[in-house]
């Protein structure tokens, strides 16, 4: 990274419609990258990494200073979560410059990033599938079906929540998510023996009985973890997304070696509130003796369930454009099967192209939402 007052080479430059006031968007916590939108262009900086080290935070700050030296923004945008380094710096910078700071919900920004990259105008459906993002209700979201129309979004549905046994620790230990599935299925008595190698297993059922200590999440990332834990692929993660990668690898090997598998019969339900429940699929994995077959069936069934979920929303809303977004779309089996199924229904499917579907592209969506809000004459939202 160059000195703070030098204009750095932008990592990606894209056209941005509609044109509007200059916006500096700060991204979120993971894979942070900033975006400067001005004069019909969106210029993204390099990804500095997760904001959990002083070095990454320093690099993000340097990018921010370099970008405002290039163009003073009329507004600053950031993630809805107030405790991220990116959010705090965004608010501080807005106060320093005397401009509004706009908080953008994480999954709204994910879908918006794809819509912005494609130059899509008008409302669209959006799937935002990732590990976690703060929802407008204060809960941990991550499996979201949205209707996005510029500055605004409507949550049409979400994945049925699973409890995070041990809160943030559950995001690092897939066996805990697997235990949450067993508990929800009325099979809590199996937790201690199934995960006997984990010191906390004997007490986890009691923890899960206390809902106040196990916040719920609609995250698809945690569903991947639960599947990997139930199949014995990755009880504890040592690197990011280790469980999801192991699950995809096992599925790919099985599909390559044995051919297609059928979706799990009755593997999901969708209720009248638009809630997609994958519990039947996950319970079936708990009894699957063949790890590879289970991993393949998980992917095939998940793609089929998401396809039906979107199709029902398309019929209800009359919308025929859907944007696929979020870090779970790095999974090629899921992304390719889901996109193909939706296109086979006649829907227009938009996917990330030059940018990552994950958090590295999030600032583009924040900038796009902020531009729409300013054009609509809406005020400060942080």
From TrEMBL:
Name the family.
Belongs to the carbamoyltransferase HypF family.
PANTHER family this protein is in? CARBAMOYLTRANSFERASE, CARBAMOYLTRANSFERASE HYPF
Protein's name in the database: Carbamoyltransferase HypF
Per the record, the domain of life is: Bacteria
Q: Where is the secretion signal located?
A: none
Identify the residues that the record assigns to the HypF Kae1-like domain, covering every copy.
21-117
The species this protein was found in: Aromatoleum evansii (Azoarcus evansii)
Q: Which residues form the Carbamoyltransferase Kae1-like domain?
A: 126-366
């Amino acid at each position: 990274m160059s000195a703070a007052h030098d204009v750095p080479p932008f990592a990606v430059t894209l056209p941005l419609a509609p044109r509007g006031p200059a916006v500096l968007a700060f991204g979120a916590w993971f894979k942070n990258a900033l975006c400067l939108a001005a004069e019909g262009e969106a210029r993204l900086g390099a990804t500095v990494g997760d904001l959990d080290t002083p070095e990454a935070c320093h690099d993000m700050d340097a990018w921010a200073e370099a970008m405002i030296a290039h163009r003073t923004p009329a507004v600053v945008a950031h993630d809805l979560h107030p405790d991220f380094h990116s959010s705090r710096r965004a608010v501080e910078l807005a106060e320093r410059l005397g401009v509004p700071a706009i908080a953008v919900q994480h999954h709204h920004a994910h879908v918006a990033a794809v819509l912005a990259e494609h130059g899509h105008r008008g409302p669209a459906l959006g799937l935002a599938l990732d590990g976690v993002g703060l929802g407008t209700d204060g809960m941990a979201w991550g499996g979201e079906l949205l209707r996005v129309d510029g500055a605004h979004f409507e949550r049409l549905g979400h994945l049925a929540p699973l409890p995070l046994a041990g809160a943030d620790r559950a995001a690092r230990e897939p066996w805990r998510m697997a235990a949450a599935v067993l508990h929800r299925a009325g099979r809590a008595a199996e937790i201690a023996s199934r995960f006997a190698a984990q010191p906390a297993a004997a007490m986890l059922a009691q923890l899960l009985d206390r809902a106040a200590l196990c916040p719920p999440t609609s995250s698809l990332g945690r569903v991947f973890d639960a599947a990997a834990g139930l199949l014995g692929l990755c009880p504890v993660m040592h690197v990011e997304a280790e469980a999801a990668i192991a699950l995809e690898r096992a599925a790919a090997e099985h599909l390559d070696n044995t051919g297609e598998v059928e979706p799990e019969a009755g593997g999901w339900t969708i209720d009248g509130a638009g809630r997609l429940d994958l519990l039947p699929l996950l319970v079936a994995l708990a009894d699957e003796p063949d790890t590879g077959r289970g991993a393949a069936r998980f992917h095939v069934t998940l793609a089929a369930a998401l396809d039906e979920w979107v199709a029902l929303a398309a019929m209800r809303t009359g919308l025929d454009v859907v944007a696929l977004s979020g870090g779970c779309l790095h999974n090629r089996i899921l992304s390719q099967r889901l996109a193909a199924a939706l296109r086979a229904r006649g829907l227009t499917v938009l996917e990330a192209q030059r940018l990552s579907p994950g958090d590295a592209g999030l600032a583009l969506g924040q900038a796009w939402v902020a531009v729409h809000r300013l054009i609509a004459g809406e005020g400060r939202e942080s």
